[in-house]
Amino acid sequence: MATASGSMRRRLEDQEFTLRVYPGALAEGTIYCPVSARKNTTAAEAIEVLIERLRLERTKCYVLAEVKEFGGEEWILNPGDCPVQRMMLWPRNALENRSGLGSGDDYRFLLREKNLDGSIHYGGSLQMWLRVTEERRRMVERGFLPQPAGSDPPSDLCALPELTERAILESLRARFRQEKIYTYIGSILIVINPFQFLPIYNPKYVKLYDNHTLGKLEPHIYAVADVAYHAMLQRRRNQCIVISGESGSGKTQSTNFLIHHLTALSQKGFASGVEQIILGAGPVLEVRMMD
To answer: Could you tell me where in the chain the CATH 3.10.20.90 domains are found?
Structure first.
């Protein structure tokens, strides 16, 4: 019995796993980088492979972040931590996902840059979102400035110089290729289901969209939730958010993101079971249109 157990342990230690690491803005054009690792492979060793494959600057410091909770909470791994051992603690459905080991809906490894002061540098898409000034955005929306040729598609389709079906679809397609799944039409938010995890739902984004006018920042479902929440407080009237779409378009997940943001705003960082109670009632609250 002991011999069989020892043999199984050795096979497990020698078995190779594939870690899917998402570099984000550190390697534009790369969705994820597969890294072969064993049970005792450390985060530092995995990062060394990533630096080599992605041709990253060796003068900078990088860390692996594990995403394992609803909303994209990030947990930084120490250099000596073993990603495979962390991954083995994930739920079975995350490990047995048909698209490959380590690719569950809410479970990921991210590659982050670490600043000299020890803080994590997120960079990339967030700075790109904010690079256009508020004044220029408004001028373009009002038609006083033309949409520059070859520039990023507008975040609000009302800013398109020509409102045709082809122009709208091309704009949505271009934004989707940039992993921008949210687009405004005035105060209406269009959501395109990416069918993959995007790290844009963590506490950093909750704070970013807190108490901002709709349209001031890049479109996001947190912005819609935030406007409804603050309108309720200021006007002292109930607010309603209507979510519609075909089956499989992501209505339930969008509802979860709305609830996540609303409970985060109401609790202001304090732990509470309110969110899980509401999410647990989701199947009861869902209304399905029958033919």
So the answer is: 11-126
In this prediction, residue 101 carries a pLDDT of: 38
Residue 9 pLDDT exceeds 80: no
User: Is there a binding annotation on residue 245?
Assistant: yes
Q: Is 68 annotated as a binding residue?
A: no
pTM over 0.85: no
Q: Is 171 annotated as a binding residue?
A: no
The answer on whether 244 is annotated among ligand-binding residues is no
Question: Is position 246 annotated in a ligand binding site?
Answer: yes
Segment 112-142, tens digit of pLDDT:
888 877 777 655 443 333 343 445 555 555 5
> Token match 């450390």: residue?
42
Residue 252 is assigned to a ligand binding site: yes
Residue 128: its pLDDT value, please?
39
Among candidate residues 203, 205, 219, 201, the one with its CA nearest the CA of residue 153: 219
157-289, CATH topology level: Kinesin (3.40.850)
Residue type, 142: R
Mean pLDDT across the stretch 28-48? Answer: 87
- Give the domain 11-126 fold: Ubiquitin-like (UB roll) (3.10.20)
Annotated binding residue at 104? no
Bridge-based pairing of strands 120-121 and 33-37 is unpaired
Does 125 carry a binding-site annotation? no
Neighbours of 197 (CB within 10 A): 19
